[in-house]
Amino acid sequence: MERYDVVVVGAGNAALAAATSAREQGAGSVLVLEKAPKGLRGGNTHYSGGLFRFAFHTAEELKPIVPDAERKLPGFFAGVSPYPRELFRADLMRVTEGRSDPWLADLLIGNSHDTVRWLVEQGIVMEPAVSLSAIRFGDKVHWAPGAVVRARHEGVGLSERWFEIMEERAVEVRYESGALALLQNDAGHVTGVRARAAHGNVAIESHAVVLACGGFEANPEWRARYLGRPWDHAKVRGSAFNTGDGLRMAFEVHAMPHGQFTGCHSTPIDADAPPYGDRKLTDKTNRLSYPYGVLLNGRGGRFADEGEDFQFYTYAKMGGIILNQPGGVAWQIFDSKVTDLLEPRYKTAKPVVADTLDALIAQLPLDRDAARATLQAFNAAPRRGRFDPTVLDGLDAAHLEPPKSNWAQALDTPPYYAYAATGGITFTFGGLRIDEQARVIGNDWKPIPGVYACGELVGGLFHHNYPGGSGLMAGAVFGRLAGAGAARFAAEGR
Ligand SMILES: Cc1cc2nc3c(=O)[nH]c(=O)nc-3n(C[C@H](O)[C@H](O)[C@H](O)COP(=O)(O)OP(=O)(O)OC[C@H]3O[C@@H](n4cnc5c(N)ncnc54)[C@H](O)[C@@H]3O)c2cc1C
Fold first, then answer.
1. 289 shares its domain with 231
2. Separation of CA 126 and ligand 1 centre (Å)
3. DSSP E strands, 273-315
4. What CATH number does the domain containing 47 carry?
5. Ligand 1 near 322 CB (within 6 A)
6. Alpha helix (H) residue ranges in 128-257
7. Segments in the chain below pLDDT 50
8. One domain, residues 214 and 296
């Protein structure tokens, strides 16, 4: 039988951070099992925007992470506001309605900055997240708090770089080798995995196993089971391979579930997006500039406060809100005052365009009389304040139901644009309970010896919603811990 110090299940950001960390901490032989074929490798990480949210006290602290930033974007360091741990924590707690596991949140936040530095030391190249995070308004560039840095060439670049690092560190990556089950001895120690292989199923022994194989977003049966309707019909924004295998394998050895199993990350995407992520379009189907416009559903009504907060704090729940509208579709309506503010990703869409709101509505498949009345009421609503997309400007249309709390300019400048959006699922929130070494906790509240977890399949952090850039950060923090823990455990067992 084959034997390794550490077997890592999955080949996304969390898995490859774990494999790197395990090698760094002395694991002699590390095997990465990837269920996907080589051409589809890398999980959701490949499709991601590559954005990392992390804490820092001063913009100067970003210099070792993005040393070229000032040369490429003069004024960058002066334009970025500090993002101390307290602010990260407050953001996480606010958007999760106070439900993020405080201990896990602190582990993530407390390790976030150091782990980004570690990623750079390992060879991940970072850059300012211009197209995701920078808002140019007047002569000012505003950077979204805490979410200013991404991997170079986004998720595609991040994933490619991780696989190069695997080669540099002599980590074997085996494709089309989905793990099927954990091996466990009579003492309850996990001793390896059973996995698919070209010639049949094989058992692979290891001193420790790291589960890093994503959530269950690509499994319609589990979506129906845990998330309910209409999630079985949701389009998947990323990998088709994250079908809950790691959770199932862990539950088979009596792991403890943790977090919100009825919750997921889901964003507004192009209504015509493919059923699973497109390797080339990656995250470019996102439609996240709705705070500057008006959202209409098939009944012609508004259904959400488009300006509740900055997009990074509402986008991950807005997909679900849209998916729950009739037909799972909504139209984002903008006028020409804000077209310069639309994310560059809108260039991948074909909007409906017209010179009057009436003519725009006439082209949309919704209740047109109701939609016209909704837009008239929106435009007629009394407003206070001055439009400024770089702050929560308080320009509200507050007497409407639902209100629009910020950026509520009237739609009065032709031409007008309508973008059709649906809700695409990104990843699921329910997962495994881990401890400070990323050991998987059993349902007797004790660590299960020999098994670690990281990435999307860790539960407890995110509930209802999510602050943008936290998924990759959590994957890297817990991946690094899991790899180190697995290497130490392997050393004890050798
Ligand atoms: C379009 C899109 C944009 C995003 N943008 C961002 C962003 O900018 N910033 C951010 O923080 N987050 C972003 N996210 C979320 C982020 O991608 C995820 O949180 C993160 O990549 C998860 O990493 P992971 O390693 O846990 O999972 P993944 O990267 O999904 O990797 C899971 C791996 O497990 C493999 N696998 C599954 N089952 C098995 C099995 N049985 N055996 C072996 N292998 C298996 C899969 O093939 C895959 O390789 C985005 C996601 C999407 C889809």
1. no
2. 19
3. 294-297
4. 3.50.50.60
5. no
6. 130-133, 154-168, 220-222, 245-252
7. none
8. no
